[in-house]
Write a structure and sequence with these properties.
The longest helix has 17 residues. By secondary structure, the chain is an alpha/beta fold. The chain contains 10 helices and 10 strands.
Amino acid sequence: MNHQLQNPNLQVSRGESGLTLIDTHCHIHELDYPLPVDDVLKRAVEAGVTKMLVVGTSEKSSEDAVQFASKYPGVFATVGVHPHDTKDGYDKISVLAKGNVVAVGEIGLDYFYDHSPRDVQIKALESQIQTAVDNNLPIVFHVREAFDDFWPIFDKFRGLKGVLHSFTDSQENLDKAFERGLFIGVNGISTFTKNSDQQKMYANIPIERMLLETDAPFLAPVSHRGSTNEPAHVVEVARHHAELRGIDVDELARVTTRNAERLFGL
């Protein structure tokens, strides 16, 4: 069974073939998400995006993610406190992580803004990594302009598995991520960036280490710039990277779907 995408030449196979697209990072569970959720989920399925992860960014957001995922088939929750919000607390994550969730995240360090003090961000990151270890869960990392502090913290722990969400950094840090077995989350930024170093970096990500995401409602891909992002738009991210590599989108969908299923146990 095939579902037609925006481009008539591209299809994502489903059903017996086992191929589908997965949006591994979105925030459609948030109370202020501006689009009707039922319509958003319908469009996702019609586009072949039949699984998606709703990602917690605070204690309340994480609780909402768990509740949201329990209502809809094909939707899975992660729980974590974004570095911006760590000043408001993160203790509940250790409890929520024992429930029906597939990852801890998004957690990390963000020095681009100082919405939370850096020492608080670091303590929260270490605590939430330990929560992931204690519950044998992968981690969704958010790291922005903070890799010099992030890698030593990461290396304190053994056997971590996860993804660097919305990666926009250097080839050097990309290589360090690969050395540590991490996946790389690519989204709409990769379709519209004008930064030549970023463009080269994205082209150097093997699809075997890639996860597709939207970060909806943010970062809509190039043909939807200025509009609210939604999981169906992950199709355009897939198309962009298939064209960039000169491969069929079905191949990219198959590999990235397998990556997501294995990492998150979907």
